[in-house]
Amino acid sequence: MIDGYGRTIDYIRISVTDRCNLRCVYCMPEEGVGPVAHEDILTYDEILRLAEIFAALGVRKVKLTGGEPLVRKNIEALVAGLRKIPGIREVTLTTNGVGLEEKMEALAAAGIGGINLSLDTLDPDVFEKITRKKAFDEVMRGFHAALAYPQIPLKINCVPMGLPGQDVTEVARLAKEYPVHVRFIEMMPIGLGSKFDFQSEDFILRLLAARYGEYQPYEKRLGNGPGHYYSFPDFRGKVGFISAISHKFCDSCNRVRLTSQGYLKTCLQYDIGTDLRKLLRENADDEILQRAVAEAISKKPKSHQFTENVGEHREMHTMSQIGG
Ligand code: SAM
Ligand code: SF4
Predict the structure, then answer these.
(1) Residue 45 confidence (pLDDT) above 90
(2) Relative to the CA of 184, which of 17, 168, 169, 175 has its CA 20 to 30 Å away?
(3) What is the domain-level CATH number for residue 294?
């Protein structure tokens, strides 16, 4: 599907829940976000129906997100269902790693095509400060459980916050010791993220070079998204950056988002899109759904304006409600 600015949209992030078992300070308030009633959340059958519509319009890759996708029961059944849809070539998942150890076997059997594990620090105390939960050991068990499936690519996502003790060079060490890529994601001023400063790619690269030596840009593409990567001497994986602020990548944006309540969001920063749950529950046929999706995508904004004051249509939800 081509949007109004000539970009091919072939990737969708599907949020399966607003709920989460962690409370990352830049993503969710301590008390959580007002619980959404179960009936307001799309059922798996509804998600699969919409996925068929997206696939018919050219979506090829799906990333399951949340909230925390592993808190939704039987997530592996959704993975397996998505894998059966003609046109969908890849189904991946982003998780905080809580419960991953127990789920890994079922996810692998369902055909998961990759796991992104969010991990901002390797220090258990700093982990607790960031996530407000004591779950570091459990997350690391999830990391090792995922490593046991070398055919399923594993990436680590880290949001540098400049918090004392959050040694990002330690997180990067995972790419030295294990066959994983570590990506640093610039803090985005969405929801609670706007309370924190971001640490730029250039700053992090200087820290990494001081510890690990000179790096080389890695020219080949890795993954579906806007990350770009560097090779460090003797590292098994690459170190990547998703730098929405300092290296804006909207010109090559290939994605849209479906919230857990069935709203198709066409840009991370804005609330612009269309309510597909409403159409689904009014028994809209495939043609009506396809038209609604195509029309929303044709109006996808040209770019975010995180560094400007956008006023109208600015996204007011937290990242846990959007899915990252
Ligand atoms: N709970 C899952 C997880 O943590 O991977 C999936 C949802 S979470 C919202 C997806 C990603 O968004 C995580 O890697 C998280 O670090 C990132 N994220 C949340 N708020 C952010 C912000 N304000 N700026 C940049 N990334 C953010
Ligand atoms: Fe939960 Fe992920 Fe948000 Fe952390 S980043 S609070 S793990 S949804």
Answers:
(1) yes
(2) 17
(3) 3.20.20.70
